[in-house]
Amino acid sequence: MDNGLPTTIVIFGASGDLTQRKLVPSLFNLYRKGRLPKQFRIVGYGNTAFTDEQFRAHLEEGMKQFAPFEYKDEEWQAFAANLAYQQGRYTDLADFKKLAAFLKDWEISSGNRIYYMATPPGVFPSIIDLLGLTDQLTEYNGWRRVVIEKPFGTDLASAHSLNQQIHKTLNEKQIYRIDHYLGKETVQNILVARFANTIFEPLWNRNYIDHVEITVAEKVGVEHRGRFYDSVGVLRDMFQNHLLQLLTLVAMEPPASFEANALRNEKVKVLSSIRPMKAEEVAQKTVRAQYAGYRQESGVNPESTTPTYAAVKLQIDNWRWQGVPFYLRSGKNLKEKLSQVTIQFKEPPHLLFPTKDGRITPNMLILYLQPDEGIHWRFEAKVPDTVSDLRSVDMEFHYADSFGKTAIPDAYERLLLDTLTGDASLFTRADEVETAWGLMDPILEAWESNSQPLAVYEPGSWGPAEADELLARDGRKWNTWDGRIE
Ligand code: BG6
What we know:
With 486 residues, the chain is of the alpha/beta class. It folds into two domains: 143 residues, NAD(P)-binding Rossmann-like Domain (Rossmann fold), CATH 3.40.50.720; 272 residues, 2-Layer Sandwich (Dihydrodipicolinate Reductase, domain 2). Helices cover 36% and strands 20% of the residues. The chain has a nine-stranded mixed sheet with strand order 14-13-12-11-7-10-9-8-15, with helices on both faces. Helix 1 links the parallel strand 1 and strand 2. Helix 9 crosses helix 14 and helix 10 runs parallel beside helix 14. It is globular. The termini are far apart. Bound molecules: 6-O-phosphono-beta-D-glucopyranose (BG6). 6-O-phosphono-beta-D-glucopyranose (BG6) binds next to loops.
């Protein structure tokens, strides 16, 4: 809650892309909606030599290019008056002393502060150490919160040591680890669909569900991030965080309350119930692939074996999900940008109506996370003027129809607002991040020993044939239904 004190948001990495494309447009939109504290200031910090004026101009340029909403110039000018810039290094004590003095000067005697790490991950530890050394993290008069962008570590060991290191200077309560997927309205709506309705939950288990599919497909390739991406790959970039987070929301038990730790306890419980993959199972249960032409992308090693696509089959060992596989896939340079969760139900236990192959199309509930956000139910109906021909029909909810086209704010808006109000529900806790890494480690180790062939897929396709085979071995197929029924 707003304690009425002046609030400063310090952004490390302020000259970078994230600040210009996401953070400042989101903060500006919060300002337009009257949701920022009465007295606030945004201080950019970075290596680039900007004056305050140059910093504002750089952000204004970004606003014109990236803001997903209409705004008036006078609104921007009023907001921009609260923007300031401090040039400094991320490893230099003297620069951090200067920052501390600069911040204190504006606050006079008290104030809240958010420190946002929008830098490459290599400098997180040094920034936090230096903030600690210059006494910027003690909550004397006003709170101190630190937002940490992903990637949080590169495997379990590095995530654990990063946690240990930041816990030397910060309480877990002060740490907001970002996974921007949790800021998406449609992702939060998974919980609302499940726990604010009675119709879904009774069916939400192994008795009725055949399998769950989570797809996060991207149309873009690695763009200008070739060098970074090549050192990371799809499992670290998308699975350890976004896809596993989606899985936890689909699979978790109802939390005791809508409160950060109650929610996160349930998410950790799901992650801890996922059966860890044994080295000898990796080739059978995962597919790693690279798009043709990836090695020629700028910044990418011409002999790179970094995967840009993965498909993974996971099992959850608990009462609700025993025997229900969760198939996860994600990749770059695919046919379309599409994020969706498909809940495929079992076929009816008895076939009353004659069908050609003695089977019936199973029901599906599809949560469309982006684009065309919404929820679709697919069920069978009788074709008119036939005795008993069946056809699938679709019952659809589209956010745009129900709430208007511009109703969905950017994920960062939600996450920044929650940081300001101190609600950590949509941020990942230390044990959650580590448990997720623990699930990825065996796959990463097997893949990095190159014992499993690297499949290749055509840009603009839906991924490699090997991913279809992964499901075909279980007698299943990826959901290719796009809501348009022939
Ligand atoms: C980021 C990844 O976390 O998520 C990117 O680093 C990816 O590689 C992006 O493109 C996808 O996010 P969204 O919101 O566009 O689905």
